[in-house]
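User: Hi! I'm a student and our assignment asks us to look at how structure tokens line up with a sequence. Could you show me two examples?

Assistant: Happy to help. In each example below, the sequence comes first and the structure tokens follow. Example one:
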Amino acid sequence: MTKENTKSLDYQKRANDIFMPLYPHKSVALDHADGSYVYDMEGNKYLDCAVGIAVCSLGHNHPAFMKGITEQLDKGFTMSVGSFATKPKVKAAELLLNNCSAEKIFFTNSGAEAVDGSLKLARAWAHENKGEDCKEFIVFRNSFHGRTYGAVSATEKSLHQPQFAPYLPGFHFAEFNNLDSVKELITDKICAVIVEPVQGEGGLTAGTKEFFQGLQKLCNDNKILLISDEIQAGMGRMGTLFAHSHFGYEPDIITLAKGLGGGFPVGAFMSKSYISDVFKAGDHGSTYAGNPLATNVVYHVVSEIVKPEFLARVKEAGAYFIKKLNALHNETGNAITSIKGEGLMIGVDTKFEIKTILNELLKNGMVATQAGKNTLRLTPPLNISDAEIDEAVEKLGTVLKDESKLTEYTS
């Protein structure tokens, strides 16, 4: 970087003084963003291979995203959103439902809210169709579904954070990609299975098609709902609009967020009508969810992502990124231990601590994130160019080749 980050350091200090210590603030304070890049207070440029952890699906300030914002701003955006239909909400809902097998939708403000809503819906459906004692879930180790009490109860992290207990009861953990471990947990009390197509915080581990197809059959045979948590893996990141399409299964309930709004906070959960019809007026709701501003952004962002040529390009970019990373793997020997993930949701395991790699990447003008215990997570904009992929791999290579600045990982 060419400019000293004195302003950034000042904001870092001020942030550390006033915010709860939940996120360690980096020495870089961001000022603005455009396309695939973010800029700090000093004007230094960083290739953004995080985009808020798969949030800014079209990159920063994309025309479709900006149109969704600007054309709604002078029309109002909190008009008793639950009780009244609005053009943006109806158009966004129809666009999503017309591209999957779900038939009903409820917009939320976040992914965790979408998960909580799906858990409530599953329990309500089971209460009516399977009996009052059928309220339990099968979830997976290395899962991540959110941080509200409902979502975190379905997340393995809860098992290691007793300070927040008691959690919601009735969650049983199976092994991801292990159908036998699911079978062992099935009882008459299980109402649903919730699963990520690709485990984000679980180290970018993708499910296999055989696992998902077997899981769907197991759920169907036992009258258990299958909830597909596509908050991180969905909305084009696999090269298909919905992640379950990439893996060849059809869920009963789908949760969405992150890339759904291209950077605007919004989520949703969707289901077949025979499931959602158990909800009665007042069973669920939200003050802000489904507001015209958020749903107008959803409509324009998803309209861009769903284009066949856009999704085809995502597949090409993902394959190209993996190809370049494999070449880097060969070039750097045992520095990289594995490359995993699907589409443009890529994980790189190395022999070094990811935190030290992230710090060095930042110094070299690139933003990425950590997933799981020691996986470098790359979730760039879905419209990233080949030249930008080349730049990302080059920067990662520069960091990995200077081992003197890195710390070896010990599990």
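Example two works the same way, sequence first and then tokens:
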Amino acid sequence: MIAQLTGTLVSKKKNKIIVDTSGIGYELTVSLSTFAELPSENSKIKILTYQHMREDYVELFGFSTQLEKEFFRLLISVSGIGPKTAMEILSNTSLSGFKRAIVTGDLKTISSIHGIGKKTAEKLIFELKDKIKEFNIPDHGITASSSFADEAVEALRAIGFTYIQSKEAVDTALTRVNKDASTQQIIKEALKDLEKK
């Protein structure tokens, strides 16, 4: 089982990277959050991996942190959730946001993730509600009304930002606005970060 690779990052495109280790190039699928942490091409890299074996092929998935790797393993322990769906979840929400959604039974947030329907969201909540509490994930502490936060995320998505961009910008904005902030105030604060990118 390949658990980690150390070598040269020779290629990175979207969610696929190639790491050269002693002349052998390994292709890995990574989440958007891990992709954002990667150094430039031809840089030295050390990345955690999960080796998924099927009858017809072997696939490698890469992670920038041990927490993300453990979270990935937790997700694929749910019946019906394969590695690609798990990567979609990791790419479309923050770990703290997903944990909060599972613990609070927030069906709307989970089912809004690309590739996750209502039935799958219900299954994730049912199977992970107790297990996920064991994960010590830093939480930014959302204090504003969750409905205002949800509205802000949807508004940002409507003007062209991705789910993960919108969700993380809103989460960050909520740490800077007061607990009585309106949807408009949250959006205005979130846009300050999004316009820098």
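Here is something you could point out in your write-up. The chain has a mean pLDDT of 87.
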